[in-house]
Amino acid sequence: MDDIAPEYDVIVLGTGLTECVLSGVLSVKGKKVLHIDRNDHYGGEAASVNIETLFKKYGNYTKGEEPWKKYGRVNDWNIDLVPKLLMSCGELTNILVSTDVTRYLEFKQVAGSYVQQGSGAKATVAKVPSDAGEALRSSLMGIFEKRRMKSFIEWVGTFDTTDSASHKGLNINTCTMKDVYDKFGLEAGTRDFIGHAMALYQTDSYISEKGTAPETIERIRLYGNSVSRYGKSPYIYPLYGLGELPQGFARLSAIYGGTYMLNTNIDEVLYEGTKAVGIKATMQDRGGEEPMKFTTKCKKILADPSYFPGKAQVTGQLLKAICILNHPLAGTDNSDSCQLIIPQSQVGRKNDIYIAVVSSAHNVCPKGYYIAIVSTIAETSANHHLELAPGFERLGRIEEKFMGPSIPLYEPLESGVNDNIFISKSYDATSHFETTTDDVKDIYRRAEGHDLVVEGLREGTNLVGEE
Amino acid sequence: MAARGPAGSRVGNSRFAQFKLVLLGESAVGKSSIVLRFVKDQFDSYRESTIGAAFLTQTISLDENTTVKFEIWDTAGQERYKSLAPMYYRNANCAVVVYDITQASSLDKAKQWVKELQRQANENIIIALAGNKLDLVTEQPDKRAIQTADAEAYAREAGLLFFETSAKTAENVRELFTSIAKKLPLDQAGPRNPRSGGRGGVELRPDTPGTQAGGPCSC
Q1: SS3 of A132, please?
Q2: CATH architecture designation of domain B14-186
Q3: Residue A187, class by beta-carbon neighbours within 10 Å (0-12 exposed, 13-18 middle, 19+ buried)?
Q4: Interval B108-117: pLDDT, tens
Q5: Which of chain B's residues have a Cβ under 8 Å away from the Cβ of A199?
Q6: Residue A334: CATH number of its domain
Q7: What is the count of residue pairs from A and B with beta carbons less than 8 Å apart?
């Protein structure tokens, strides 16, 4: 077995999406990267697993039984552990294109984006209008409200932060979003789906906070632009599951010289003063050979929070239930995939409930099955099942339900400048990867001292040698 | 987006099919060198480990009407510490498992890779076993550590194509890929699996025009 180099520019711990994007980008930029995971597979919390692994992970079956056997070939299942989708005009898409990682992946549209109005027996599900035309046909609003919504959407399209003539007489940088909604005379229900199903805020705090209007408008635009890029919904999704994303970026890193070691435990982090300068680690061998112990130096360490629990804090608890269905969601036009948002106000909560559905159309399960993940931020410390109940109501008959304890969301205590250890955040409760790519850029800035410019990464590289 | 094999088309009498080929084998047995010889007809004795290419492509004509295009994936060094991702094997139509005929242990490693392929890849994947560095043995016969007959017997038993090759002299390199091409199911070429595109997939390209809904597209 080859020797490990005595020193690396960067050691990356954990192969989640954040770590793999950073590893790939740093390798492309010529850094010498050693990338390690304690698991025997890529992806960490952002992996996709087969149905046998899922049953074993949650342990919700009687010992001795093999319930996964009734679901066909286990490897036909690629079940995400993180319920997220890609915004088709979002930053992750941009990074994928800029690095040519799209060459390893194939994407498909998510068929629809829906929002619930009302609750209990009176709940209705409607498609989220994405442009002025759809707003006019939407069942979400009455005829006069539709006109107001249309003029709001058109205004969002022409809005320019630097041009006060487009600000409708509002002081856009200090007013609240409530002021903006008031200006257009929008009803409460309309505000609800604009803020939660288009701007994708999970709580209502954005409405009364001063100065959030430009960001809200930007979010609505991202939504609209993402829908109009391919139609139907703002989301795209990789065939074979989200777990393909970290693998794709890991391959990018490897192609540019990054060294990969799975199944490897970090025994010790070496410090000089306060600064991390290396690691001692052991690679376990699955083939029955002796474990390989090694020591190597590094200029810095990037890691997911699980590698440094003492350097991270819990900021919230995510509730999540992975459900296997054999039918599409009611009210979603038999969509093979969708996002359904239940705004908090509709069901008496503070945080929205999200449902993300994918199916055999995305090669994540055998034909006839659907995988729905219901998630929200925990508001109580007990009875998490009850908190997700409005989501379960939308699913109809559920074949299998996988739900563990609430999942703590971590973020680093420090920037990493003091100890050379740059820690990522957990995958949060948002339905997309925009906060993940924000974190990638933030870590890059903290670790490298300058901004990550994604554009132009592919310039001068030759990723495909044509004959 | 790169075509996912096998993607095929038929115009008149001519057939065109594309297949994904993956390389496997221990480090330093000459995986990349074989591909470099096949694709660019080059050889470099002091080549560093694989760097810089997502995959290489090369077409061969089986006859005047039949063209096969290989999309060749190199391990990018991820085999070194057994860290190849499932993505690597996904939808591979064929594989070349390479060993070094001057290194006794490399055939054992090759056998492990064959097992790994049978576990991870498509059931009907075409596998070829290539004993590389034939040039070293031609110069100094005592350098040979693995007898041709032994490797051939294993290949026959395991249902693999078999060649001894030299990336340096080009001996049997083209023959290796041609024999794989002949064994591939050209008539089934076409969108056999959804990954070959054209089934509602979206193409992510830098120049995809963002049509306007709510202002200038920032993507």
Answers
A1: helix
A2: 3-Layer(aba) Sandwich (3.40)
A3: middle
A4: 999 999 999 9
A5: none
A6: 3.30.519.10
A7: 171
